[in-house]
Design brief:
About 20% of the residues are buried. By secondary structure, the chain is α+β, with helices and mostly antiparallel strands. The protein is about 25% helix and about 30% strand. It has 2 domains: about 70 residues, Type Iii Antifreeze Protein Isoform Hplc 12, CATH 3.90.1210; about 120 residues, no CATH class. It has 3 helices and 11 strands; from the N terminus they run H-E-E-E-E-E-H-E-E-E-E-H-E-E. It is rod-shaped, with a radius of gyration of 32 Å. Strands 5, 6, 7, 8, 9, 10 and 11 form a 7-stranded antiparallel sheet that branches. A two-stranded antiparallel ribbon has the order 1-2. The longest helix has about 35 residues. A hairpin with a 6-residue loop joins strand 8 and strand 9.
């Protein structure tokens, strides 16, 4: 093989290598484009309204979207069965992508407990501080049974566990006949405490909740469960 033939072979080999390099580059670009536009997977985003925290989630609150897998975070919700029995831990803004770290399991009942829900004044009884999982004492004020008997404030239930806080709605106050915001609060209670709570809701002038600090869930002595202004020293 003479020098001209050798140069020809070298040029041919270089041409083949350049072609292979260009082909590999094209394949890389194609793969990158494919990864950007597909394969697509199903995800969900919050619909037209914000979702309030500590509310039971419903499939109707979310919209189905399709997006490239590479753009989706590992904790994105891809199946709405993942929200069953869950509540939001913070406000979910409309249009935001739903992720598993935004939701937690709804507190469950323990053996011997039952769910009891009552309406509580949203301003004085909840004020945005009471959330599922919180412990509260339930206070109720009663008029004297007979004329001349003093009014009383009583602790009806201690350390009641809150399992759900509903959205405030407007109702007419029975005493003032003025509209007031009330919210349904659901508790996990024993049978006796459930009876006490429903009695207070039916016959008390006012029912209020007092948040119990975590770790201080102690019983209230009987002598401290009832208060009368005339006996306060």
């Amino acid at each position: 093989m003479n020098s001209r033939q050798r140069r020809g072979v070298i040029l041919l080999v270089l041409s083949v290598l350049c072609a292979l390099g260009a082909f590999a580059g094209v394949l890389s670009v194609i793969d990158d484009v494919k990864s950007e536009v597909g394969p697509e997977v199903t995800a969900y985003r919050v619909g037209s309204d914000d979702v309030a925290p500590y509310q039971k989630l419903d499939a109707g609150q979310f919209e189905r979207v399709r997006m490239p897998r590479r753009w989706l975070s590992p904790n994105a919700v891809t199946d709405l069965r993942q929200i069953q029995g869950k509540i939001a831990v913070t406000t979910l803004r409309k249009g935001s992508l739903l992720q598993t770290d935004m939701i937690v399991a709804r507190p469950a009942l323990q053996a011997g407990q039952q769910e009891v829900a009552i309406m509580i004044d949203a301003a004085t009884g909840v004020a945005g501080k009471i959330t599922p999982g919180a412990r509260v004492n339930v206070y109720a004020t009663f008029e004297g049974r007979r004329q001349g008997d003093p009014d009383q404030s009583r602790i009806i239930v201690t350390n009641a566990r809150v399992i759900d806080v509903g959205k405030p709605t407007q109702e007419s106050d029975n005493r003032t006949q003025r509209p007031t915001d009330v919210a349904p609060i659901t508790f996990a209670l024993s049978t006796v405490d459930a009876q006490r709570l429903t009695y207070a809701e039916s016959f008390a002038q006012r029912v209020r909740l007092a948040l119990v600090a975590p770790g201080s869930e102690t019983a209230v002595p009987d002598k401290d469960r009832t208060y009368e202004l005339a006996t306060d020293k």
